[in-house]
Amino acid sequence: EAADKGGWSSFMAKEITEQPEAVANTFRGRVVDGRVEIPELSALGEERLREVDRIVIIACGTASYAGQIGAYAIERWARVPVEVQLSHEFRYRDPVLSPSTMVISVSQSGETMDTLMAVKYAKDRGVTTVSVCNTQSATIPRESDAAVYTHAGPEVAVASTKAFTAQITALYLIGLHLGRVRGTLSPEEEAQAASAFEQLPQAVAEAVETHEQIAQLAHWMADTRSVLFLGRHVGYPTALEGALKLKEIAYIHAEGFAAGELKHGPIALIDHGQPVFVLVPSPRRSPVMHSKVVSNIQEIRARGARVIAIVEKGDTAVLPYADDVIRMPLTDPLFEPLVQVVPLQWFALELSTAKGLDVDQPRNLAKSVTVE
Ligand code: G6P
Protein backbone atom coordinates (compact mmCIF):
# COMPACT_ATOMS: atom_id res chain seq x y z
CA GLU A 1 0.00 0.00 0.00
CA ALA A 2 2.94 2.31 0.71
CA ALA A 3 3.84 1.98 -2.98
CA ASP A 4 0.37 3.16 -4.01
CA LYS A 5 0.94 6.27 -1.96
CA GLY A 6 4.00 7.07 -4.06
CA GLY A 7 6.20 7.44 -0.98
CA TRP A 8 3.79 9.83 0.74
CA SER A 9 2.39 9.13 4.19
CA SER A 10 -1.20 9.37 2.96
CA PHE A 11 -3.20 9.20 -0.23
CA MET A 12 -4.37 12.72 0.45
CA ALA A 13 -0.78 14.04 0.41
CA LYS A 14 -0.12 12.20 -2.84
CA GLU A 15 -3.33 13.51 -4.37
CA ILE A 16 -2.56 17.11 -3.37
CA THR A 17 0.73 16.83 -5.24
CA GLU A 18 -1.00 15.34 -8.28
CA GLN A 19 -3.05 18.47 -8.91
CA PRO A 20 -0.86 20.00 -11.63
CA GLU A 21 -1.46 16.87 -13.74
CA ALA A 22 -5.11 16.60 -12.67
CA VAL A 23 -5.90 20.06 -14.05
CA ALA A 24 -3.67 19.62 -17.12
CA ASN A 25 -5.27 16.28 -17.99
CA THR A 26 -8.71 17.86 -17.62
CA PHE A 27 -8.12 20.69 -20.08
CA ARG A 28 -5.79 18.79 -22.42
CA GLY A 29 -7.40 18.26 -25.81
CA ARG A 30 -10.18 20.69 -24.89
CA VAL A 31 -8.14 23.88 -25.34
CA VAL A 32 -6.57 23.76 -28.78
CA ASP A 33 -4.87 26.78 -30.39
CA GLY A 34 -6.57 29.12 -27.95
CA ARG A 35 -10.02 27.71 -28.66
CA VAL A 36 -12.13 25.74 -26.16
CA GLU A 37 -14.14 22.87 -27.52
CA ILE A 38 -15.86 20.15 -25.52
CA PRO A 39 -17.06 17.49 -28.00
CA GLU A 40 -19.57 16.11 -25.47
CA LEU A 41 -21.29 19.51 -25.36
CA SER A 42 -21.11 19.97 -29.13
CA ALA A 43 -22.99 16.66 -29.41
CA LEU A 44 -25.98 18.29 -27.70
CA GLY A 45 -26.32 20.65 -30.68
CA GLU A 46 -25.54 24.36 -30.82
CA GLU A 47 -29.20 25.34 -30.93
CA ARG A 48 -29.87 23.62 -27.62
CA LEU A 49 -26.90 25.35 -25.97
CA ARG A 50 -27.95 28.75 -27.33
CA GLU A 51 -31.46 28.34 -25.94
CA VAL A 52 -30.31 27.74 -22.37
CA ASP A 53 -31.54 30.66 -20.27
CA ARG A 54 -30.69 29.40 -16.81
CA ILE A 55 -28.21 26.96 -15.31
CA VAL A 56 -28.59 25.17 -12.00
CA ILE A 57 -25.50 23.45 -10.64
CA ILE A 58 -26.26 20.64 -8.22
CA ALA A 59 -23.74 18.88 -6.01
CA CYS A 60 -22.85 17.96 -2.43
CA GLY A 61 -19.85 18.70 -0.24
CA THR A 62 -16.62 19.76 -1.91
CA ALA A 63 -18.19 19.38 -5.35
CA SER A 64 -20.76 22.04 -4.41
CA TYR A 65 -17.95 24.52 -3.68
CA ALA A 66 -16.38 23.73 -7.05
CA GLY A 67 -19.87 24.47 -8.42
CA GLN A 68 -20.00 27.82 -6.62
CA ILE A 69 -16.64 28.80 -8.07
CA GLY A 70 -17.63 27.58 -11.53
CA ALA A 71 -20.80 29.69 -11.36
CA TYR A 72 -18.78 32.94 -11.36
CA ALA A 73 -16.88 31.88 -14.49
CA ILE A 74 -19.91 30.55 -16.38
CA GLU A 75 -21.85 33.75 -15.72
CA ARG A 76 -18.86 35.88 -16.76
CA TRP A 77 -18.25 34.06 -20.04
CA ALA A 78 -21.64 32.68 -21.08
CA ARG A 79 -23.82 35.46 -19.58
CA VAL A 80 -26.39 32.95 -18.33
CA PRO A 81 -27.71 33.20 -14.76
CA VAL A 82 -26.28 30.34 -12.72
CA GLU A 83 -27.39 29.20 -9.32
CA VAL A 84 -25.88 26.50 -7.18
CA GLN A 85 -27.99 24.21 -5.06
CA LEU A 86 -27.19 21.31 -2.82
CA SER A 87 -28.63 18.22 -4.52
CA HIS A 88 -30.76 17.21 -1.53
CA GLU A 89 -32.24 20.71 -1.25
CA PHE A 90 -32.88 21.07 -4.98
CA ARG A 91 -35.21 18.10 -5.20
CA TYR A 92 -37.48 19.00 -2.34
CA ARG A 93 -38.01 22.67 -3.07
CA ASP A 94 -40.28 22.13 -6.08
CA PRO A 95 -37.67 23.84 -8.31
CA VAL A 96 -38.75 26.04 -11.19
CA LEU A 97 -37.50 24.23 -14.28
CA SER A 98 -38.19 24.58 -17.99
CA PRO A 99 -36.87 22.97 -21.18
CA SER A 100 -34.42 25.88 -21.48
CA THR A 101 -32.91 25.16 -18.05
CA MET A 102 -29.62 23.28 -17.97
CA VAL A 103 -28.76 21.29 -14.86
CA ILE A 104 -25.05 20.61 -14.36
CA SER A 105 -24.28 18.02 -11.70
CA VAL A 106 -20.81 17.85 -10.18
CA SER A 107 -19.70 14.61 -8.55
CA GLN A 108 -16.31 13.00 -8.17
CA SER A 109 -17.69 9.50 -7.73
CA GLY A 110 -20.74 9.84 -9.95
CA GLU A 111 -22.56 7.70 -7.40
CA THR A 112 -23.68 10.17 -4.70
CA MET A 113 -27.31 9.20 -4.18
CA ASP A 114 -28.53 12.72 -3.36
CA THR A 115 -27.06 14.03 -6.62
CA LEU A 116 -28.22 11.05 -8.68
CA MET A 117 -31.80 11.49 -7.48
CA ALA A 118 -31.65 15.21 -8.26
CA VAL A 119 -30.38 14.48 -11.79
CA LYS A 120 -33.20 11.98 -12.35
CA TYR A 121 -35.71 14.50 -11.05
CA ALA A 122 -34.44 17.11 -13.52
CA LYS A 123 -34.33 14.65 -16.41
CA ASP A 124 -37.93 13.58 -15.77
CA ARG A 125 -38.91 17.23 -16.24
CA GLY A 126 -37.29 17.53 -19.65
CA VAL A 127 -34.27 19.55 -18.53
CA THR A 128 -30.88 19.19 -20.27
CA THR A 129 -28.56 17.43 -17.84
CA VAL A 130 -24.77 17.66 -17.98
CA SER A 131 -22.57 15.65 -15.62
CA VAL A 132 -19.12 16.72 -14.45
CA CYS A 133 -17.68 13.48 -13.11
CA ASN A 134 -14.32 11.89 -12.35
CA THR A 135 -15.37 8.25 -12.69
CA GLN A 136 -15.85 6.77 -16.16
CA SER A 137 -19.27 5.17 -16.71
CA ALA A 138 -20.53 5.93 -13.21
CA THR A 139 -24.29 6.11 -12.74
CA ILE A 140 -24.70 9.92 -12.84
CA PRO A 141 -22.89 10.46 -16.18
CA ARG A 142 -24.82 7.51 -17.64
CA GLU A 143 -28.11 9.09 -16.56
CA SER A 144 -27.17 12.49 -18.03
CA ASP A 145 -27.54 13.90 -21.55
CA ALA A 146 -23.84 14.77 -21.66
CA ALA A 147 -20.82 13.82 -19.54
CA VAL A 148 -17.80 16.10 -19.22
CA TYR A 149 -15.24 13.97 -17.42
CA THR A 150 -12.57 15.37 -15.16
CA HIS A 151 -9.35 13.45 -15.64
CA ALA A 152 -7.94 13.71 -12.14
CA GLY A 153 -7.31 9.96 -11.91
CA PRO A 154 -8.69 7.81 -9.08
CA GLU A 155 -9.08 9.71 -5.81
CA VAL A 156 -8.67 7.47 -2.76
CA ALA A 157 -8.55 9.83 0.25
CA VAL A 158 -11.99 10.59 1.62
CA ALA A 159 -11.24 14.33 1.62
CA SER A 160 -11.39 15.50 -1.97
CA THR A 161 -8.45 17.52 -3.33
CA LYS A 162 -7.42 16.86 -6.93
CA ALA A 163 -11.01 16.12 -7.96
CA PHE A 164 -11.96 19.59 -6.67
CA THR A 165 -9.42 21.48 -8.78
CA ALA A 166 -10.27 19.28 -11.77
CA GLN A 167 -13.99 20.04 -11.27
CA ILE A 168 -13.32 23.79 -11.31
CA THR A 169 -11.28 23.31 -14.48
CA ALA A 170 -14.10 21.37 -16.17
CA LEU A 171 -16.72 23.95 -15.17
CA TYR A 172 -14.53 26.75 -16.56
CA LEU A 173 -14.22 24.86 -19.84
CA ILE A 174 -18.00 24.49 -19.95
CA GLY A 175 -18.36 28.25 -19.36
CA LEU A 176 -15.94 29.01 -22.20
CA HIS A 177 -17.59 26.54 -24.59
CA LEU A 178 -21.03 27.97 -23.84
CA GLY A 179 -19.73 31.53 -24.17
CA ARG A 180 -18.25 30.82 -27.59
CA VAL A 181 -21.36 29.09 -28.92
CA ARG A 182 -23.63 31.80 -27.56
CA GLY A 183 -21.44 34.63 -28.87
CA THR A 184 -20.96 36.18 -25.44
CA LEU A 185 -17.24 35.41 -25.16
CA SER A 186 -14.92 37.90 -26.83
CA PRO A 187 -11.85 36.55 -28.67
CA GLU A 188 -9.70 38.45 -26.14
CA GLU A 189 -11.39 36.74 -23.20
CA GLU A 190 -11.02 33.35 -24.87
CA ALA A 191 -7.32 34.00 -25.54
CA GLN A 192 -6.81 35.22 -21.97
CA ALA A 193 -8.48 32.12 -20.53
CA ALA A 194 -6.52 29.82 -22.85
CA SER A 195 -3.27 31.37 -21.69
CA ALA A 196 -4.39 31.11 -18.05
CA PHE A 197 -4.96 27.38 -18.61
CA GLU A 198 -1.53 27.04 -20.18
CA GLN A 199 0.13 28.55 -17.11
CA LEU A 200 -2.09 26.76 -14.63
CA PRO A 201 -0.17 23.47 -14.08
CA GLN A 202 3.02 25.38 -13.28
CA ALA A 203 1.14 27.74 -10.96
CA VAL A 204 -0.52 24.83 -9.13
CA ALA A 205 2.90 23.14 -8.85
CA GLU A 206 4.24 26.30 -7.16
CA ALA A 207 1.29 26.30 -4.77
CA VAL A 208 2.08 22.66 -3.89
CA GLU A 209 5.54 23.89 -2.86
CA THR A 210 4.04 25.72 0.14
CA HIS A 211 3.90 22.36 1.93
CA GLU A 212 6.91 22.89 4.19
CA GLN A 213 5.81 26.37 5.28
CA ILE A 214 2.28 25.14 5.98
CA ALA A 215 3.58 22.11 7.90
CA GLN A 216 5.44 24.45 10.28
CA LEU A 217 2.40 26.64 10.70
CA ALA A 218 0.21 23.63 11.48
CA HIS A 219 2.79 22.33 13.93
CA TRP A 220 2.57 25.55 15.96
CA MET A 221 -1.22 25.50 15.74
CA ALA A 222 -1.78 21.86 16.72
CA ASP A 223 -4.02 22.75 19.68
CA THR A 224 -6.17 25.26 17.80
CA ARG A 225 -9.87 24.79 18.48
CA SER A 226 -11.41 27.01 15.83
CA VAL A 227 -10.27 28.50 12.53
CA LEU A 228 -12.01 31.01 10.29
CA PHE A 229 -11.52 31.53 6.56
CA LEU A 230 -12.37 34.71 4.67
CA GLY A 231 -12.59 35.40 0.96
CA ARG A 232 -14.46 37.49 -1.56
CA HIS A 233 -15.81 36.61 -5.01
CA VAL A 234 -14.29 33.24 -6.03
CA GLY A 235 -12.29 33.42 -2.80
CA TYR A 236 -15.51 33.00 -0.86
CA PRO A 237 -16.31 29.41 -1.89
CA THR A 238 -12.57 28.71 -1.62
CA ALA A 239 -12.83 29.81 2.02
CA LEU A 240 -15.81 27.47 2.50
CA GLU A 241 -13.78 24.60 1.08
CA GLY A 242 -10.82 25.41 3.36
CA ALA A 243 -13.16 25.23 6.35
CA LEU A 244 -14.75 21.97 5.18
CA LYS A 245 -11.35 20.30 4.78
CA LEU A 246 -10.46 21.19 8.37
CA LYS A 247 -13.75 19.86 9.74
CA GLU A 248 -13.48 16.66 7.72
CA ILE A 249 -10.01 15.49 8.62
CA ALA A 250 -8.82 17.54 11.63
CA TYR A 251 -12.20 17.63 13.45
CA ILE A 252 -11.75 21.30 14.17
CA HIS A 253 -14.54 23.79 14.19
CA ALA A 254 -14.04 25.92 11.11
CA GLU A 255 -16.15 28.36 9.17
CA GLY A 256 -15.77 30.21 5.93
CA PHE A 257 -17.23 33.67 5.40
CA ALA A 258 -17.58 36.17 2.61
CA ALA A 259 -15.20 38.88 3.81
CA GLY A 260 -17.77 41.60 3.13
CA GLU A 261 -20.18 39.85 5.46
CA LEU A 262 -17.83 40.15 8.46
CA LYS A 263 -19.27 43.43 9.70
CA HIS A 264 -22.79 41.99 9.48
CA GLY A 265 -22.18 39.47 12.23
CA PRO A 266 -19.15 37.17 12.16
CA ILE A 267 -16.75 39.89 13.34
CA ALA A 268 -18.23 39.34 16.81
CA LEU A 269 -16.39 36.00 16.82
CA ILE A 270 -12.99 37.65 16.55
CA ASP A 271 -11.17 37.50 19.83
CA HIS A 272 -7.53 37.61 20.84
CA GLY A 273 -5.53 34.94 19.02
CA GLN A 274 -8.37 33.72 16.79
CA PRO A 275 -6.68 32.28 13.67
CA VAL A 276 -8.13 33.61 10.43
CA PHE A 277 -6.98 32.61 6.96
CA VAL A 278 -7.61 35.39 4.46
CA LEU A 279 -7.59 34.77 0.72
CA VAL A 280 -6.30 38.00 -0.76
CA PRO A 281 -7.05 38.79 -4.42
CA SER A 282 -4.36 40.06 -6.75
CA PRO A 283 -3.46 43.74 -6.16
CA ARG A 284 -2.61 44.19 -9.86
CA ARG A 285 -5.60 42.53 -11.45
CA SER A 286 -8.29 43.10 -8.81
CA PRO A 287 -7.20 46.37 -7.15
CA VAL A 288 -10.65 47.28 -5.79
CA MET A 289 -11.34 43.91 -4.19
CA HIS A 290 -7.75 43.76 -2.99
CA SER A 291 -8.09 47.02 -1.08
CA LYS A 292 -11.40 45.88 0.42
CA VAL A 293 -9.82 42.66 1.66
CA VAL A 294 -6.88 44.59 3.11
CA SER A 295 -9.37 46.71 5.10
CA ASN A 296 -11.07 43.51 6.29
CA ILE A 297 -7.69 42.29 7.48
CA GLN A 298 -7.09 45.55 9.35
CA GLU A 299 -10.50 45.25 11.03
CA ILE A 300 -9.91 41.73 12.32
CA ARG A 301 -6.30 42.44 13.27
CA ALA A 302 -7.42 45.40 15.37
CA ARG A 303 -9.62 42.96 17.30
CA GLY A 304 -6.78 40.56 17.99
CA ALA A 305 -7.06 38.02 15.17
CA ARG A 306 -4.03 36.02 14.14
CA VAL A 307 -4.01 36.65 10.39
CA ILE A 308 -2.64 34.11 7.94
CA ALA A 309 -2.76 35.86 4.58
CA ILE A 310 -2.62 34.00 1.28
CA VAL A 311 -1.36 36.60 -1.16
CA GLU A 312 -0.01 36.96 -4.65
CA LYS A 313 3.77 37.06 -4.49
CA GLY A 314 5.01 40.64 -4.55
CA ASP A 315 1.95 41.91 -2.64
CA THR A 316 3.43 43.96 0.18
CA ALA A 317 0.27 45.85 1.21
CA VAL A 318 -0.74 43.07 3.59
CA LEU A 319 2.63 42.60 5.28
CA PRO A 320 2.12 45.07 8.17
CA TYR A 321 -1.11 43.37 9.23
CA ALA A 322 -0.41 39.66 8.72
CA ASP A 323 1.18 37.28 11.20
CA ASP A 324 1.93 34.78 8.46
CA VAL A 325 2.10 35.32 4.72
CA ILE A 326 1.77 32.51 2.20
CA ARG A 327 2.84 33.56 -1.27
CA MET A 328 1.04 32.37 -4.37
CA PRO A 329 2.12 32.51 -8.02
CA LEU A 330 0.57 35.08 -10.36
CA THR A 331 -2.67 33.89 -11.97
CA ASP A 332 -5.72 35.31 -13.68
CA PRO A 333 -8.18 36.37 -10.91
CA LEU A 334 -10.79 33.74 -11.85
CA PHE A 335 -8.10 31.08 -11.57
CA GLU A 336 -7.00 32.10 -8.05
CA PRO A 337 -9.03 29.34 -6.28
CA LEU A 338 -7.04 26.69 -8.13
CA VAL A 339 -3.84 27.84 -6.45
CA GLN A 340 -5.18 29.32 -3.20
CA VAL A 341 -6.96 26.14 -2.15
CA VAL A 342 -3.72 24.14 -2.18
CA PRO A 343 -2.20 25.60 1.03
CA LEU A 344 -5.61 25.16 2.70
CA GLN A 345 -5.56 21.46 1.76
CA TRP A 346 -2.03 21.13 3.15
CA PHE A 347 -3.09 22.91 6.33
CA ALA A 348 -5.95 20.48 7.01
CA LEU A 349 -3.69 17.53 6.27
CA GLU A 350 -0.89 18.77 8.51
CA LEU A 351 -3.20 19.67 11.38
CA SER A 352 -4.83 16.24 11.14
CA THR A 353 -1.36 14.65 11.20
CA ALA A 354 -0.26 16.84 14.13
CA LYS A 355 -3.30 15.58 16.05
CA GLY A 356 -2.36 11.97 15.26
CA LEU A 357 -5.49 11.34 13.18
CA ASP A 358 -6.02 9.11 10.17
CA VAL A 359 -5.83 11.59 7.30
CA ASP A 360 -7.30 9.30 4.64
CA GLN A 361 -10.08 7.71 6.69
CA PRO A 362 -11.74 10.34 8.86
CA ARG A 363 -14.33 9.20 11.35
CA ASN A 364 -18.00 9.11 10.32
CA LEU A 365 -17.30 9.89 6.64
CA ALA A 366 -17.42 7.82 3.48
CA LYS A 367 -15.75 8.61 0.16
CA SER A 368 -19.00 8.17 -1.65
CA VAL A 369 -22.40 8.39 0.02
CA THR A 370 -24.73 6.06 -1.83
CA VAL A 371 -27.71 6.47 0.47
CA GLU A 372 -30.03 9.46 0.74
C1 G6P B 1 -18.94 12.73 0.49
C2 G6P B 1 -17.44 12.92 0.62
C3 G6P B 1 -17.04 14.34 0.21
C4 G6P B 1 -17.57 14.67 -1.16
C5 G6P B 1 -19.09 14.45 -1.25
C6 G6P B 1 -19.58 14.52 -2.68
O1 G6P B 1 -19.60 13.42 1.49
O2 G6P B 1 -17.01 12.64 1.93
O3 G6P B 1 -15.63 14.46 0.20
O4 G6P B 1 -17.27 16.00 -1.47
O5 G6P B 1 -19.43 13.17 -0.78
O6 G6P B 1 -19.06 13.42 -3.39
P1 G6P B 1 -19.09 13.30 -4.95
O7 G6P B 1 -18.52 11.94 -5.26
O8 G6P B 1 -20.52 13.43 -5.38
O9 G6P B 1 -18.26 14.41 -5.49
Automatic annotation (TrEMBL):
<keyword id="KW-0677">Repeat</keyword>
<feature type="domain" description="SIS">
    <location>
        <begin position="217"/>
        <end position="362"/>
    </location>
</feature>
<comment type="subunit">
    <text>Homodimer.</text>
</comment>
<comment type="function">
    <text>Catalyzes the first step in hexosamine metabolism, converting fructose-6P into glucosamine-6P using glutamine as a nitrogen source.</text>
</comment>
<dbReference type="GO" id="GO:0006487">
    <property type="term" value="P:protein N-linked glycosylation"/>
</dbReference>
<dbReference type="GO" id="GO:0005975">
    <property type="term" value="P:carbohydrate metabolic process"/>
</dbReference>
<dbReference type="GO" id="GO:0005829">
    <property type="term" value="C:cytosol"/>
</dbReference>
<feature type="active site" description="For Fru-6P isomerization activity">
    <location>
        <position position="367"/>
    </location>
</feature>
<feature type="domain" description="SIS">
    <location>
        <begin position="45"/>
        <end position="184"/>
    </location>
</feature>
<protein>
    <recommendedName>
        <fullName>Glutamine--fructose-6-phosphate aminotransferase [isomerizing]</fullName>
        <ecNumber>2.6.1.16</ecNumber>
    </recommendedName>
</protein>
<dbReference type="GO" id="GO:0097367">
    <property type="term" value="F:carbohydrate derivative binding"/>
</dbReference>
<keyword id="KW-0032">Aminotransferase</keyword>
<dbReference type="GO" id="GO:0006002">
    <property type="term" value="P:fructose 6-phosphate metabolic process"/>
</dbReference>
<keyword id="KW-0315">Glutamine amidotransferase</keyword>
<keyword id="KW-0808">Transferase</keyword>
<dbReference type="GO" id="GO:0006047">
    <property type="term" value="P:UDP-N-acetylglucosamine metabolic process"/>
</dbReference>
<dbReference type="GO" id="GO:0004360">
    <property type="term" value="F:glutamine-fructose-6-phosphate transaminase (isomerizing) activity"/>
</dbReference>
<keyword id="KW-0963">Cytoplasm</keyword>
